[in-house]
Design a protein that fits this description.
Blueprint (H helix, E strand, L loop, with lengths): L2 H20 L3 E2 L5 H11 L7 E4 L9 E4 L11 E8 L10 H9 L8 E7 L2 E7 L3 H7 L2 E2 L2 E9 L9 E8 L4 H8 L4 H9 L3 E3 L2 E2 L12 E4 L3 E11 L5 E8 L1
Antiparallel strand pairs: 1-3, 2-3, 4-6, 4-8, 5-6, 7-8, 9-14, 10-11, 10-12, 12-13, 13-14
Amino acid sequence: MEKEEQLLRKRIQELASVCERRDIPVHTDFLNLSEQTVFHSVIRELAGTRYILSGGYSMAERKIVCFLPSYTQEEIPPISCVEAAPLNAKFAEDLNHRDYLGAVMSLGIERGKVGDILIENGKGYIFALEEMAPYIADQLSSVRHTPVSTRVFPAQELNIAPRYERMEGSIASERLDNVLAFVYRSSRSRILPYIEGEKVFINGKLTVKSSILLKAGDVVSVRGLGKFRYEGILNATKKGRLFVAADRFV
């Protein structure tokens, strides 16, 4: 076990213990997919611990873990959203995710304090821990060479639906390798290195089994290829193949 993983496991255990002993809500920083896999392995040892995973919106990839006290059934995650809008849209650069992330990181902020970044209609929406969002909004004055204005609001108020491409086609079975080959228009032999190389996550959990069967609603992330939601079987063909659908995020 690597040192970083050991430290993360210890941190998760400590937070769970604080929540239980003091009966107060506590949370982690934003966890990437690999770190979420570590969390899932730890939580099995913490039977009875109540928690939620949230990234600020339904399809978030980076998420925080909120441990819940006994007196609440649901805790609103301490996540805010920072909107960064070009001051003059006419002369703004075509900014992408990397541009916004680079601008935020240049402020000296730790990566774990910031979650996903969405781009919609020329604006960037930066999910961040509640206590960090005002600092980002105050300090972020430009992205690349484009001056921006900022505002902070609760993450749950953001109403942006992720964009996706609907894909439909036939596969032999719902095995992970079959579905990945279908979604990414590839062959199973080219897909296997991604699975064996620990680059595939189903609902935030690492998987290295190509034979695992996907279920409708599963969200699959593949490092280097992207993310999609498997929508399941639409119908079966006369030859026994399955006609399925998936929404590939773009």
